[in-house]
Design brief:
388 residues, 14 strands, four-stranded antiparallel beta sheet
Length: 388
């Protein structure tokens, strides 16, 4: 009798699992080289007409820059003194994208297997390399000073010596110096002033002012390479991409001169974007796999690849910019808020309209390629309007 009562209690407890835990068990995780299962919008009560209208909008609002991305990069950063192409580039394809509901494809457009540059979407992959270093205790705490981990002079001096991993991840370090020929002050300089003003600027206290700056992002990549003691593409491959069944086609490049020696071995230090070429070259489906991992709180199937603690830390708003965490953009009320959409949405964003968008509230993962960047808010509103 006691056994029957115990069994009944277990059944009752099981039936009252939190909905989130049950929902996660229904996610579809595509196998490597397997067929990515598709479901009709009707299976999720999604309005097919409105969904089609949203996809048409994405296709009709293609990024207006040149398909020759070498030209687009030079034009996009023409204000920068000394700017030049230092890493590989690739001509891009047309608009492409995927919409996943609980891991199932409910919409796709364009060539989702074509490998293209992804620019600053790379930063969210770079941030994840820091997260894995924290998970594996290679970095004890993101509030640690980077100078305690890297003593080659990169973080010497009163100012640079204050910089923490969190400052680099939130892009508010104001690191001062030069890396791979790139000067921090020459990257996206202010609209006002000229060379002398920019070179002799007053340094801001780390953690107080956000400034989007690829030289400092590449300093983070360099520092993480020394912490891992191996190239970051190897870390990404072994710790994430192989485990989520990604293709063998993605590549993560650095600048031609970005070599460092660790343990007697020459290693390429990669970039966090394609500002001067390089960065992550990847197809839409592999981007979606990476996004699905985050949608499911760092878990792929039954395997926890990235801790939920790291993801929560990574999407906490920084003090200087409520719309930015650890190299993830956040849809909080601020200068980059998408009106009418959940404030819990967070996303990776790159030059030319590359996005990986995680919408936990709707179990939705969206990847878009080559959508005119200023149209992303309207596209997401149109897409969300199709949901039940």
């Amino acid at each position: 009798m006691k056994k029957i009562k115990g069994l009944a209690l277990l059944l009752v407890l099981y039936s009252y699992q939190p909905f989130g835990a049950f929902a996660q068990q229904t996610y579809f995780f595509p196998e490597k080289n397997g067929v990515w299962e598709e479901k009709t919008p009707r299976a999720f009560d999604i309005d097919e007409k409105k969904l089609k209208e949203a996809i048409n909008f994405a296709q009709e609002n293609e990024y207006s820059g040149s398909k020759d991305l070498r030209i687009a990069i030079v034009k996009g950063f023409e204000r920068e003194p000394f700017h030049e192409i230092l890493g590989p580039t690739k001509k891009r394809g047309g608009p492409a994208g995927l919409v996943l509901k609980q891991g199932y494809i409910v919409a796709k457009w364009g060539d989702t297997k074509r490998v293209d540059m992804t620019f600053s979407v790379t930063k969210s992959f770079l941030s994840t390399m820091a997260g894995l270093a924290v998970d594996q205790k290679l970095i004890a705490n993101t509030n640690d000073k980077v100078a305690n981990y890297l003593w080659d002079g990169t973080f010497d001096g009163e100012h640079n010596g204050k910089i923490t991993w969190a400052h680099l991840l939130q892009q508010n370090s104001d690191w001062s110096g030069e890396l791979w020929g790139g000067k921090d002050w020459a990257d996206r300089p202010p609209r006002e002033g000229g060379l002398d003003d920019w070179k002799n600027r007053e340094l801001r206290e780390p953690g107080t002012v956000m400034e989007y700056n690829d030289v400092r992002v590449n300093v983070l990549a360099y520092a993480l390479t020394h912490v891992w003691r191996k190239p970051l593409p190897m870390v990404l491959k072994e710790e994430v991409m192989d485990k989520i069944g990604a293709s063998t086609t993605w590549r993560w490049h650095g600048y031609e001169n970005a070599w460092t020696e660790i343990d007697g071995i020459q290693m390429k230090s990669v970039t966090g974007g394609g500002h001067s070429g390089a960065g992550l070259f990847i197809n839409t489906e592999d981007m979606a796999r990476f996004g699905l991992l985050f949608l499911n709180d760092g878990k792929w199937g039954s395997q926890q690849l990235i801790s939920t603690e790291w993801i929560q830390e990574a999407i906490e708003p920084s003090v200087p910019n409520v719309n930015y965490g650890y190299m993830w953009w956040l849809n909080r009320k601020g200068n980059r808020h998408w009106e009418g959409l959940s404030e819990n949405i967070y996303y990776a964003a790159g030059f030319g309209g590359n996005f990986i968008i995680i919408d936990k509230a709707n179990d939705l993962l969206v990847v878009t390629r080559w959508l005119e960047p200023k149209m992303i808010g309207e596209f997401m509103n149109r897409l969300t309007a199709a949901l039940p």
